[in-house]
Write a structure and sequence with these properties.
The complex is a heterodimer of chains A (about 120) and B (about 375).
Chain A (H helix, E strand, L loop, with lengths): L7 E2 L4 E3 L6 E6 L1 H7 L2 E5 L6 E2 L4 E7 L3 E5 L3 E7 L1 H5 L3 H4 L8 E7 L7 H9 L1
Antiparallel strand pairs in A: 1-2, 2-3, 3-9, 4-6, 5-8, 6-7, 8-9
Chain B lengths: L9 E2 L3 H6 L3 E5 L2 E6 L3 H10 L1 E5 L4 E7 L2 H8 L12 E7 L5 E9 L8 E7 L4 H11 L6 E4 L5 E6 L3 H6 L14 E6 L2 E6 L8 E6 L4 H11 L5 E3 L2 H10 L27 E2 L2 E2 L5 H13 L4 E7 L10 E4 L2 E12 L4 E8 L11 E5 L2 E8 L9
Parallel strand pairs in B: 1-3, 4-14
Antiparallel strand pairs in B: 2-3, 4-10, 5-8, 5-9, 6-7, 7-8, 10-13, 11-12, 12-13, 15-16, 17-20, 17-22, 18-19, 18-21, 19-20, 21-22
Helix pairs in contact in B: 2-7
Classes of the chains: A alpha+beta (about 120), B alpha+beta (about 375).
Subunit structure (chain B): The glycine cleavage system is composed of four proteins: P, T, L and H.
EC number (chain B): 2.1.2.10
Organism (chain B): Streptomyces phaeolivaceus
């Protein structure tokens, strides 16, 4: 399992891209997708709504369980991935690419986001 | 989650093999069991369309032998075990004195080995194996029969799916064509001595193979090889749960519990007040006769199927609602790979139990999602 080096990671297993014009993309990691099993339903935050770092902003439902989705940063949602709404299995098949979840105009970033290497260490335990 | 946090989980004879196959393991009733090897949906589909191979060694086996074996089981269980012909199996239950269900069981009546003496293999759910063993030992007082804990004596492998007869046939001389559903015969599979049973918990044709644990790896590998050309895949407990749910089969702890009698669960037919043609006395008889009468006069909540109109998944314990009030409770729910929509089993008030009843929903974390009431099972294989 490889975690792209250019991304940053939260301890709750979201990844965050670098910001383009202040907007970052958020998804969940392959580690999290594997732990969930087949994702069958994704409830994503509404475009225009405000999310807060570390707080629930949606849910991901898999065969066995339902998990809260957290935002790794605070800011305003500018876009959600309609492809994932229509085909939630993208979260499993392409967690770092086509399975991204939402884009957020970052207002504030917590200072405890992890590098790829730190995230690997975090999940190794 | 763990039922025995202070002790190490038990591992089946196939444990190392599961890990080498990359299985995601999970605690199940104190056992470390494969949850899935890859995608649980793909495993589910393999069983419906081709074949799947399961390790079910966590199930609890109890052997009852002796001249009084059948009489003991007629006394201890609600079914007519004396009326089961050697070589056949029966789905039955063990109840408390108050009629509450202790477990649901499959009893295999094995071939009679000596005059007048019989051997029965009782298979209990992993989570209830000790409870069932203790009850059978206690209820055996006064019967000429021995109750033996055989949990360590068996590994259990199941091959399920439409390709399973071909796969097992390639490895045995046993007469599988003559082996009916709910029957078992001793034989060898891939050179391994086995009780070959035509049973399962998936809604498909298939076989359960009870073997000595020391032969489990050898048998697993032979089955894997025999199934190579027809798409057999290893399957975990996750898809086993969606398979049994689609097939409308109850699961202990979900549809069945000590709080319910078989009549409350819609399974009153397993209770036999006459056994071997005679009125029978058995543990729970008085309470169960009352439960039967009550079910006639005042129907209890009915176990029904629910099919989602949307995509949100109902889970066990979620309220079933209609007209703004709670009319029942979900006992099992999952996205159905075969139907492509979430499904659930639920106990609902009799007034809302008829298939097609409109206005029924499930309260999914505060939001009332519309559901269609349907008859069980959701899925029935074509024969």
């Amino acid at each position: 399992m490889s975690n792209p080096q250019q991304l940053r990671y939260s301890k709750e297993h979201e990844w965050l891209s670098g910001a383009e014009d202040g907007v970052s993309t958020v998804g969940i990691t392959e580690f999290a997708a594997n732990a969930l099993g087949d994702v069958v339903y994704a409830q994503l935050p509404e475009v225009g709504s405000t999310v807060t770092a570390g707080e629930t902003c949606g849910e991901l439902e898999s065969t066995k369980s339902v998990s809260d989705l957290y935002s790794p940063v605070s800011g305003e949602i500018t876009e959600i991935n309609e492809d994932v709404v229509n085909d939630p299995s993208l979260v499993n098949t392409a967690p770092f690419e086509g399975g991204w979840l939402f884009k957020v105009r970052v207002a504030q970033e917590p200072d405890d986001l992890l590098s790829a290497d730190e995230y690997v260490a975090h999940t190794a335990g | 989650m763990s039922s025995s946090p202070t002790t190490a989980p038990r591992r089946t004879a196939l444990d190392a093999l599961h890990r080498s196959l990359g299985a995601t393991m999970t605690d199940f009733a104190g056992w470390d069991m494969p949850l899935r090897y890859g995608s649980e949906r793909d495993e589910h589909t393999a069983v419906r369309t081709r074949a799947g191979l399961f390790d079910l060694s966590h199930m609890g086996e109890i052997t009852v032998t002796g001249p009084g074996a059948a009489a003991l089981l007629d006394h201890a269980l609600v079914g007519d075990i004396g009326g089961v012909r050697p070589g056949r199996a029966r789905y039955t239950m063990i109840c408390r004195e108050d009629g509450g269900i202790l477990d649901d069981l499959i009893v295999y009546r094995l071939a009679e080995t000596e005059a007048g003496s019989s051997t029965c293999l009782v298979v209990a759910n992993a989570s209830n194996a000790q409870v069932v063993l203790d009850a059978l030992v206690e209820r055996s007082a006064g019967f000429d029969a021995e109750v033996r804990d055989d949990r360590d004596g068996y590994a259990l492998l199941a091959v399920q799916g439409p390709e399973s007869p071909g796969i097992v046939k390639a490895l045995t001389d046993a007469d599988l064509d003559g082996l009916k559903y709910y029957a078992g015969l001793p034989g060898t599979v891939a050179g391994v001595p086995a009780l070959i049973a035509r049973t399962g918990y998936t809604g498909e044709d298939g076989f359960e193979l009870f073997v000595n644990p020391e032969h489990a790896v050898e048998l697993w590998q032979a089955l894997t090889k025999a199934g190579e050309g027809v798409g057999l895949v290893p399957c975990g407990l996750s898809c086993r749960d969606t398979l049994r749910l689609e097939a409308g089969m109850p699961l202990y702890g979900h549809e069945l519990s000590t709080a319910l009698t078989p009549f409350d669960a819609g399974l009153g037919r397993v209770v036999k007040f006459e056994k071997s043609g005679q009125p029978a006395d058995f543990v729970g008889r008085t309470a169960l006769a009352e439960a039967a009468a009550r079910a006639e006069s005042a129907p209890p909540r009915v176990l029904v199927g629910l099919v989602a109109e949307g995509r949100r998944v109902p889970r066990a314990g979620y309220p079933v609602v209609a007209d703004g009030r709670v009319i029942g409770e979900v006992t099992s729910g999952a996205p159905s790979p075969t139907l492509g929509r979430p499904i659930a089993m639920a106990y609902v008030d009799a007034t809302h139990a008829a298939p097609g009843t409109v206005g029924v929903g499930v309260d999914i974390r505060g939001s009332h999602e519309p559901y269609e009431v349907v008859a069980l099972p959701f899925y029935k294989r074509r024969k």
